[in-house]
Amino acid sequence: MGRALKLKPPSYLMLGMLRLGARSGYAIKKAADVSTRFFWPTSLAQVYPELARLERAGLVTRREDPHGARARSAYEITADGDAALLAWLRSTREEPLQFRDEGVLRLFFADALPGEDQLTLVRRLRERALSAEAQMRREIIPLAEVLEQAGTRYPAVVASLGADAYAHAEKWLARLEARLDEERPAR
Amino acid sequence: MGRALKLKPPSYLMLGMLRLGARSGYAIKKAADVSTRFFWPTSLAQVYPELARLERAGLVTRREDPHGARARSAYEITADGDAALLAWLRSTREEPLQFRDEGVLRLFFADALPGEDQLTLVRRLRERALSAEAQMRREIIPLAEVLEQAGTRYPAVVASLGADAYAHAEKWLARLEARLDEERPAR
DNA sequence: GTGTGCATGTAAGGAGTTACATGATTGC
DNA sequence: GCAATCATGTAACTCCTTACATGCACAC
To answer: Which residue of A has its CA nearest to B124?
Structure first.
């Protein structure tokens, strides 16, 4: 069973990735980098200590799984781990969303800039949204669709939501840009 | 002039709020709570040390401004501070956006849940988006519009962008919810 | 007179990042 | 042979939050 310990979102991320088939800490990090990183960034320095914690708590088991002479650990989620993951997925606890974006912070204070520079700032934000959307459609969604064909649909759902959200922001900023452009005195 | 020091987004937040008319640390925090907190949360314990840092660097000046027997400091942005703020607004450095949302993380792993519970989870996310949008329209946008009438437009721009983004997410999740509902076996 | 808001700060701790350290395997 | 990738971990540091501590002013 293991002792009770406080599980945080990164803990559930590990459990969830193991459930989706990742086996090593390295594999968890790699999977996170092409999926969950957009809404829950994770670094390797978090992964290994967290897996050890989960093992002590009995939510995962660890087995030696060397690859040639290279040491490797294979982790598996236990029945307790599975129960913990499901309980979290069902829990109604509302963690406030954390969003930190220097670009939007700049936009908030953009009144301090002359009109020309305001336009430049908005354009940069729009281009950033555009390339974020493109990256998701190019690199993330195809991978999620492979999972989808194997019967795991929500990674693709989340990736589409992300891409569409970026697309929406891009269109919104394009309209703002057009409005600012009209206001500029003709020269 | 003061010594050079590394300025981070919270530093510019202070400078920007002073520029918009906040005078005390407390007032900066209050203003942030109804505006920038949605894309750059700030706590009081950050505000006071940061103002002291900015003062040492010569980007703000501080003056005793007691209210009756209650001590109070009035801060003002200096010409150097103003220049630093403008340079930041114009800089092209792209800080990656940080987004952490436990709700979306849950959605990503929702395949582990039975269909009924998937629907519940999606519904909760939709309701959260809906109430976030409502809160922005009710509490944040009206305040921003007051500023707008005084000639400061971007706080209102950013608040509208936020509200519309939440509205977009809500509609997206409503469509997902409808799709999931159709799939459920009739009983 | 009492609760709410104004006002300023410090201390301790938590969460997460970057940098460091090491070495094997695989594909070109 | 060499570069990229696989693989695991630790140490130091940064940033930010929560909790603590204090006390006046004002409206009801």
So the answer is: A92
